[in-house]
Amino acid sequence: MQAYIAKRCLLFIPTVLMATLLAFLLLRIIPGDPALVKLAGETGDSNFTQEELHHLRVKLGTDKPLYVQYGKWMWGLLRLDFGQSMYFEEPVAADLASKLPITLELTVLAMLIATVIAVPLGLLSAIKQDTPADYIARIISITGVALPNFWVGILIVYFLVLLFAWMPPLGYANLWDDPLTNLQQFIFPALALGFFEMAFTARVTRSSMLEVYREDYTRTARGKGLAERVVIVRHALKNALLPVVTVSGFQFGRLLAGTVVIENIFMMPGMGRLLVDSVFHRDYTEVQAIVVVITASVLVLNLLLDVVYGWLNPRIRYS
Amino acid sequence: MTNPTRRSLLRASLGGAAAGALVRPYTSNAEATSASAPKHGGIINMHSYSFPPPNWHPHVTNTVQVMSYSGIYNQLIEFNPETADPSDLRGDLATSWELSKDGEVYTFHLDPRAKWHDGKSVTAEDVVYSMDSMVDKEAKPPRVVTLPALDPYYEKGTARAVDAHSVEIPLKIPFAPDFLPTLALDFCKIIAKHWGESDIDHEKWESVIGSGPFKPGKFVKDVSIELVKNKDYWKPDLPRIDGMVHYTIKDKGTAIAAYKTGRVLMTNWPVTNFSNKEARQLEEEAKDTLHVDYVKNAVFFFFFMNTSKVPFDNPKVRQAVNLALDRQALFNTFGVPGLDTLAPPLGTGMWFGRSAEEIAKLPGWRQLNGAKHPDDIAKAKALLAEAGHPNGFAAEMMVRQVVEFPDQAVIYKEQLKKIGIELTLKLEESATGFQRYLKGDWVCAPQASAHFAIQPDAVLGRVWMPEGSWARYARYSPPQWWQEAYTQQAGEHDQEKRLDILRKLEDYLILEDPGGSAVTYWTARSWVMNNKIKGIHAAGSVWGGFKHETTWYDG
Lengths: 319, 555
Fold this sequence. Notes:
The complex is a heterodimer. Chain A is mostly helical. Chain A has helices at residues 2-29, 34-40, 50-60, 66-78, 92-127, 132-146, 149-164, 179-213, 216-223, 228-265, 271-281, 284-312. Chain A has 2 domains: 2-78, no CATH class; 100-312, Orthogonal Bundle (MetI-like fold), CATH 1.10.3720.10. Chain A is globular and about 85 Å long. By secondary structure, chain B is α+β, with helices and mostly antiparallel strands. Chain B has 2 domains: 6-36 and 58-199, Dipeptide-binding Protein, Domain 1 (Dipeptide-binding Protein, domain 1, Alpha-Beta Complex), CATH 3.90.76; 297-524, Dipeptide-binding Protein, domain 3, CATH 3.10.105.10. Chain B is 28% helix and 22% strand. Chain B has helices at 6-14, 30-33, 124-134, 179-183, 193-196, 252-260, 276-285, 315-324, 327-334, 356-359, 374-386, 405-417, 430-439, 456-464, 469-474, 480-490, 495-512; strands spanning 22-23, 43-48, 74-75, 77-79, 89-91, 94-99, 105-110, 160-163, 166-170, 189-190, 214-220, 224-229, 243-248, 266-267, 290-305, 367-368, 371-372, 393-400, 421-428, 444-450, 517-530, 533-534, 552-553. In chain B, helix 8 packs antiparallel against helix 11. Classes of the chains: A mainly alpha, B alpha+beta.
């Protein structure tokens, strides 16, 4: 196992390297110039000269050849220095430190909601196969898979306003300072974000449960005279959940990516919103840093899940 | 108390009483305009469409975001937010002011009670320092986009402190009737000399010092900007609210939800992500909750031409386009009757504009049997032939992907096809578009101009005078006589005489050469407000009325 983990950790290097290269190049391919955005301002109609534009490019380092810019950035990354925001000229690390916890809280809550709803829903759907309960559960899960999360977010805002003349409080309240306001701010975005994952997990749970439900060992357990509840919980469900754990790793990455849209719809000051704003500002250093953080988070989490998977299923051996 | 209007003040000042003091202090007249007495207290959440600025110096920030921290500072004078007359001006730091008999020097008298947040007095030296800062063309970072509006009137280094609380500001153009409404814009902030000259980091929110009714509160980048009440404010009984929080909301649907649920109570300036149609629809849907105040004639749209590029370097080609544009069709698509107007460069409905009846007869604007007048099309074709393009020509139209420009571009393309001009649309991101404007690397484009002050100097100066930003982008310089006449009208205090000059200037743009900008229609900007917000009305410009010292919450 240790050798496996070490090997996986080594594989992080080319993966992160590829992600940095892609993020770096894609930002340079899309039209725009950080110096120009900063000087021109939001209206684009600011008073500046070509000379001032050139000076700012020199200051930001965007006048240098691409390989120099990339090398400088990578050298900073190796020393865990994300650099300065090109637009606000403040340390990127400080931004990430304040935004990352918000995004993580949203992601974890979305995952929690998705799992808490999905597993019982999938279970119910499998146990009550081809009954009205199954049909309802399937409608919910298929709807969830079909609807993109930004649309779910918009619908949630719309119905909250229409039915209750209410929407989540603006701004951000820290979980430890004001848990009630924090919950009001996070619960609906988390629902929107987790809806797809809930639906997908419910589908996986259902099909996995249906499969396990027909296995010999389940039949044996039932034949031994165990109560149906015990058969389901102790024998079937435990095995049926293995694929669910597997997809959770992928889901975490998807959820992190989903925060980009959801945080903007619900005005949450997390990393997703920072990413969008930074793209608007052509704040290369900020965007690159966020991409690296997201990539690293997904890689680490996937590794953790693989380890957990091995622990849950003794038949799995990483060698 | 009945307050005189800016115009009556102006008439009085120019009518012989120039040496006399014109007392127009900041006294509140809310009682006269509101059914109930103003209340104190409450925090107002505002919808901000813009990103926060990268620095907090009001003269050199790169955005128009002063609306979210305007309350930290005062101006010399301001648009009176408590009256519905958008041209009404009143003193802010100044308790009174007078113009010398020869119209060359304004003297402003400051309220001796005025003090900075650090307790020091606001002095005439601060005003001198601020005036020079506002017109400093060498400022780094570059000045805020609106401040060049002051350049025609004030020369750096000429203001003088008469005593601790009186300051003389000489005018480059004697009398200059539009100087005061320009000075009343929310960008003309008076900043503390000791703050501006100190080594303090002006980009640090906590270091900002003003003399205004609010102080910096909590700033959360890209989320909110909070202003808290200055409890030691030098104007008694003000501000009325305890503070305000400006929330950046870019998503239109979320913004609408925030208005409907009362999470935000007003926009922080009249330019939002709502079109006028959408603002009106929102008002109809939630009329029990909110209303919309409009700044009329705030902006005009135009077909923009680079006069240094073939074929638009030829005035005949520009005039052909000017004649061929079907403005009524554009207006029918984008305009909101009652708010927007089909009008030439000097608009309609203002003292310097033509009547709708007159406009309906103008070449380029007239119609026949509900369609584009055929004589205009014929004349446009003839002009193109004279310019050496009997079969028209092909050109690229650069389209910045903001507001209605992409949709307008499609209509322009169809309209100009009728005289043989084939436009190829090239979409550009806004900042990239401006870089092309700056470099001169463009041929034509759909464009709009938000007038700094809705006054002739600002309307004509920014678009057609060589130092105006749009004229610079278009590489346009009008004939010498036109520039001289422009300067002459800017100093003409007899309104009738001024109007005569303005007509000649506008006639040239309508009948002979639109320069770089063929105006199509004018539009209002909308200021969405909860019905419980009181003590504020839209100012005579989209760039005014952000200080909120008299704003109150009727909750």
